[in-house]
Design goal:
Shape: globular
Order of helices and strands: HHEEEEHEEEE
Distance between the termini: 57 Å
Number of helices: 3
């Protein structure tokens, strides 16, 4: 019976070790507020500057958006369970682009800021989104492979996204 208790204790101890090591990204940086404070502060300053720009509006969630072109051909707006075809260009707040492509996707698969921005659009519309970290990738580190480079989006990164909505596919 003592061997069983020791075995269970060893399993619990190794599970705790594995869980605690999962809280760190591949660069071995802790994902707590303190480690990325500078990144968070730069992102907040970026958003303050964008909020003051002409034509930029703010939603109740904190999403900043600027309507470049609003199509009146149809009043069909995408909903969370729909798919759409859109050209999306994504940059970190420092201008580093990590995605620029036209593709078909489920709205529900996008980050919250893009989901919300798309809900304001109709096919043929173009919009600029300035996304706070909590509507983007949040407090986790994410990596994208773009133009033969690995681009890292650190925790607390504000984003700049250009969206051209081409088609809504209702489900």
């Amino acid at each position: 019976m003592n061997k069983n208790i020791l075995g269970i204790f060893a399993m619990l101890l190794s599970a705790v070790f594995m869980f605690s090591s999962c809280k760190k990204d591949k660069d071995n940086n802790s994902t707590n507020d303190g480690s990325y404070r500078e990144n968070k502060e730069k992102g907040e300053k970026y958003l303050i500057k964008k909020r003051e720009a002409e034509g930029v509006r703010q939603s109740s969630t904190g999403l900043l958006f600027k309507i470049e072109e609003l199509s009146s051909e149809t009043d069909v707006r995408p909903e969370i369970d729909d798919s759409c075809v859109a050209r999306i260009r994504c940059e970190r707040f420092d201008g580093i682009c990590f995605s620029d492509t036209t593709y078909k996707f489920l709205i529900n698969d996008q980050i919250k800021g893009v989901q919300e921005g798309l809900s304001y659009m109709t096919p043929g519309s173009k919009m600029e989104l300035f996304i706070p970290y909590y509507l983007g990738f949040g407090t986790v580190s994410t990596k994208y492979y773009f133009k033969n480079k690995t681009i890292t989006i650190l925790p607390y990164t504000a984003l700049h996204v250009n969206v051209e909505l081409q088609k809504v596919i209702k489900h």
